[in-house]
What we know:
The chain is an all-alpha fold. The protein has helices at residues 5-11, 15-22, 39-46, 49-56, 73-80, 83-90, 107-114, 117-124, 141-148, 151-159, 176-181, 190-212, 214-224, 230-245. Helix 1 runs parallel beside helix 3 (39-46), helix 5 (73-80) packs parallel to helix 7 (107-114) and helix 10 crosses helix 13.
Amino acid sequence: MVGTPFYIACQEGQVEIVKSLLNDQRVDINKARTNGETPFYTACYYGYTEVVELLLNDDRIDINIILDGGVTPFYITCQEGHIEIVKLLLNDNRIEVNETRNSGATPFFFACECGHIEIVKLLLNDPRVDVNKATEDSITPISIACSEGHIQIVKYMLASGREIDINKKDDDGKTGLDWAKETEKTEVSEEIFQERKRNCGKIVELLESFERNPNETRTKLRIQLGLAGKSFLIFYFSNIKIFLKF
Length: 246
């Protein structure tokens, strides 16, 4: 099945056509292709922000549709790195932020694996996101970030103030530190491999420092990343709002 006219309009990012068809009550706006992909899903996949915003404003849209394999629109958006759409979805209280694939991987896990740092930062700041939820093999988001050499992601996770479980062991008995120590050559260029290897070495030093003195290491990271004082400011302005309210 190729898809309905509405599906194709969403797939191609045809904003005006999508608007017109949304106003036609005869159109089944959730009708999926045979593989389960809905118009909303395909708009998220291709990164059509305006189309996604239109669909989110229609209560008829099923925004948490689950495809074969457990993939959701939010998951695919995080996978593809469409940050503006991630923002839109996070602002919608209906979205299921921790829905996993069949492997147990969450959208946060996959963002960490793919190295989508800006999306990781957004998700770290959302208290609904389970930042430690592991896969069926018990691999955590921080472990996958360590194994891929994504040092900036590891830094932001440790600096975030969230309770990151760095000692969680997977089914092979390995922690993130173990994975960083055992950088394996995969199907990547020599240049990419060497960069990953260097980053993994730095991750080892960082995690060992965090284990020795988590508060000191977190403080240093927050200063380095420009996060120092942000929690205080948020608290300060929140108090002002409460004061004004009363």
